[in-house]
Amino acid sequence: MGVLPDRSKKIVPSIYHDLMTNPASPILDFYPRDFELDMNGKKMDWEAVVKIPFIDEKRLLAAMAPKNALLSDVEKARNEFGVTLKFTHDPDVDFTYPSSLVGIFPDIAHCHCVENIFDLPTIEGLEYHVGLMEGVKLGDAALAGFPSLATLPYNATLGFHGVNVFQQDSRNESMVVTIENTEERTNVKTATMKLGHRVFVGYPFLQEGKVVKVSDELFDYLPADGGTSHPIQQLHGPREIDDFRKKAERIENNYSKRLGIIIGAVESITHVEMLKGLLKTDEGATVKEYAVIPGMETEYASQVIVDEVVSEDQRFLEKAAVPIEEEFPPGSRAFFLGEFNYGRPLEVVGHKDNRAEIWLSTTKGKEMEFGRNIVMSHHTKSHYTPSYAVAKMLGLHPLVLSKITSSFSVSALGLPRLNLGLNLKFESKKLKVLGYSRRSDSGWEFSNKAIELLSTYMTKFPEFIAGIQRKPQGNEYDETDFYPAEIAGAKIKEIAAWLKSIESKNFEKVPLDAEQLDSDAVMAIEKASDDALANGPGIEFKKLKGVPRNALIKPADAEHRLGNQRFTLGDRVVYVQDSGRVPIATRGTVVGISRTPRTTLLDVVFDVTFMSGTSLGERCTAFRGSTVSTASVLNLSNKQVIAGSKAAVEKRPAPVTALLTVNGGYGMPVGPGGQGQYREAGAPPPLRGSFRGAVAGQNQNGFSRGNGVPRGRGRGGLGHSGDNAAPAVHSSMAIRGNSQGQMNGARGARGGPANGFRGGRGGPPPPAPAQAFNAVPPPPSLDNRGRGGPRGRGGRGRGFPRGRGGVVQAQQT
């Protein structure tokens, strides 16, 4: 009564409702409907300080006193202290526990719970231990997740450093940490020794990762390939050099100004893939999985990389496979991953020859696939129109449409900001309204329901819409901009009442990239599920022998084996974890997919109700829905972890290996059966048209210009500006020659003279010999125009038509 507003009166006993709403109530002033918002520099209404009167405790209790005697016995008991209860599981007890709220909560069938009064133990005579307990781990031995400066050698001093706190440099002294011996660790030779190894990054908040690349100003270093011990080097261009300098400066500045840690100059950067989790192999071993996780940093200064830690994270320890008898003892429950009866529960009854014997719960026929059909029908019926087309259809200025479909604030009714928008889109929050709006590559789009709502708004309040139309680019609006002063207040109240009646603030808001079905489609899936469950085949039990280990999945291993599954709307799933809010082995249908930086979440409407179920934002029946992670369910529609079948091999993506040589070329392309991937093609047609026509998308057969004489104008490949020039990357090359297609007298490329020649007089320059790049000095100048050398215009050839863009031998890196 001292906290809730009158609109929440249903939460308190009904006997008190009059005290919150009756005009004759002695404490009615405690529950005002109209009050002032103190924005105090805030931008959003919910950030404001609400100016409502303080509660006078004596007045409140005096007003409640006559009502207290009218409370029911249950309500009186609820308002008093009770005893502490202890609930214990007893397998010998089996009864039906009646619902505590009939019509809201279902009865609990097969309840094995015993209720007893629990007496809290007393602490009289006991002594407290002051200080750290014996065996606590501190410093560099701290447990995983606890930050410690001691994992690297450092010293600290108090001084003025201007550490940035709350977007402002500190004016007082700060404790500044300086990392020691950084010169050796930031050296690129030391850093490349960690390629392919696990390390710990993010000092002093350490997280495990795997080094995949090391870079300095001039080169990228990748793990060695082909049995060599030297890392593969990739030369940086001018842009990569500039990017490295910016990254190094950013990393050093972030440590210095944000954390107060001086790490010294960053000479090399270590690139890592972060530890994603554990992966269970088909053989039963548990191994670590590393990947680039969106939203997590992957580039770290080499001098703050920690090689090893004293206390390993026990949650992410790799384990070798144990015998199948130990992993799946008789009586253990699991799920079947065979091609038929995929995802059905089972019980292990024995073992033979390193294989299991199981009792499998089976059903006749295939898994029900009504979900995808309903989703396809829903997408066919739902139509979205781009915002510019909606504006043209309704005769609105595009800015006006943008204002009224989002949060539109007006200074009215004594309030500085009154929201009179439809709240159908939220650009800054990156949210859309389910069934009304969505964001595509071309901009916002609105459904027919949204267009109908806009039309109703315009029809009911034409003066209001016309007032916005008069100044569509305005930022501040007053109630008198729409109506005369004498009726403005009443009209604005009428608009606010209509907006409240359509409950636009209660529309389902989801992220822009989320895939969600609206309530109509979800209810159709729910009805189809009920029909299929009522008319579906019964369950039978079958004994199978010789089941391999990889055809069984324990509930405890679901997180390690199912995290990489893919899902689409309408997929059928089964919950396979033995923890969480959903009962194990419950089947359902995916009606929503949303993604976070670390995982993908699924909105699932299940076939049956359960205690902790939700309505998925009023889209389905209460207690039928839940939001779960992809690692907790098995996709039954798209079987991606099938074991021991041809389908399993086809489902798994084929490994892609690039056969790169030291010089950057590719190995022989291999196709099916070890044959080449390319087939012999016929001769191309004669060259026609012109270069300009080719650029414009015409005359696609070539660049010829009159009499079959090729004429080209283009930037040639990258040549050598001198003996010490770095190898250049092959660019597009345009040639010029005579009618026989010969390349004699070709003019020099615009990227620089080829091997020091200014122009060809009788033939192209000789090809540059192949060379390794492990010890190539940097170019003499990185600032000249062109790539790899000064810009040049080769000499004109004799007796041939004038042209630009001669032939240059370039080498591919």
From TrEMBL:
<feature type="region of interest" description="Disordered">
    <location>
        <begin position="696"/>
        <end position="813"/>
    </location>
</feature>
<dbReference type="InterPro" id="IPR047008">
    <property type="entry name" value="XRN1_SH3_sf"/>
</dbReference>
<dbReference type="Pfam" id="PF18332">
    <property type="entry name" value="XRN1_D1"/>
</dbReference>
<dbReference type="InterPro" id="IPR014722">
    <property type="entry name" value="Rib_uL2_dom2"/>
</dbReference>
<dbReference type="InterPro" id="IPR041385">
    <property type="entry name" value="SH3_12"/>
</dbReference>
<feature type="domain" description="5'-3' exoribonuclease 1 D1">
    <location>
        <begin position="131"/>
        <end position="319"/>
    </location>
</feature>
<dbReference type="Pfam" id="PF18129">
    <property type="entry name" value="SH3_12"/>
</dbReference>
<dbReference type="InterPro" id="IPR041412">
    <property type="entry name" value="Xrn1_helical"/>
</dbReference>
<dbReference type="Pfam" id="PF17846">
    <property type="entry name" value="XRN_M"/>
</dbReference>
<feature type="domain" description="5'-3' exoribonuclease 1 SH3-like">
    <location>
        <begin position="565"/>
        <end position="635"/>
    </location>
</feature>
<feature type="compositionally biased region" description="Gly residues">
    <location>
        <begin position="748"/>
        <end position="762"/>
    </location>
</feature>
<feature type="domain" description="Xrn1 helical">
    <location>
        <begin position="1"/>
        <end position="82"/>
    </location>
</feature>
<dbReference type="InterPro" id="IPR047007">
    <property type="entry name" value="XRN1_D1_sf"/>
</dbReference>
<feature type="compositionally biased region" description="Gly residues">
    <location>
        <begin position="709"/>
        <end position="720"/>
    </location>
</feature>
<dbReference type="GO" id="GO:0016075">
    <property type="term" value="P:rRNA catabolic process"/>
</dbReference>
<dbReference type="GO" id="GO:0005634">
    <property type="term" value="C:nucleus"/>
</dbReference>
<dbReference type="GO" id="GO:0000956">
    <property type="term" value="P:nuclear-transcribed mRNA catabolic process"/>
</dbReference>
<feature type="compositionally biased region" description="Basic residues">
    <location>
        <begin position="788"/>
        <end position="801"/>
    </location>
</feature>
<protein>
    <submittedName>
        <fullName>Uncharacterized protein</fullName>
    </submittedName>
</protein>
<dbReference type="GO" id="GO:0004534">
    <property type="term" value="F:5'-3' RNA exonuclease activity"/>
</dbReference>
<dbReference type="InterPro" id="IPR027073">
    <property type="entry name" value="5_3_exoribonuclease"/>
</dbReference>
<dbReference type="InterPro" id="IPR041106">
    <property type="entry name" value="XRN1_D2_D3"/>
</dbReference>
<dbReference type="GO" id="GO:0003723">
    <property type="term" value="F:RNA binding"/>
</dbReference>
<feature type="domain" description="Exoribonuclease Xrn1 D2/D3">
    <location>
        <begin position="323"/>
        <end position="547"/>
    </location>
</feature>
<dbReference type="Pfam" id="PF18334">
    <property type="entry name" value="XRN1_D2_D3"/>
</dbReference>
<dbReference type="InterPro" id="IPR040992">
    <property type="entry name" value="XRN1_D1"/>
</dbReference>
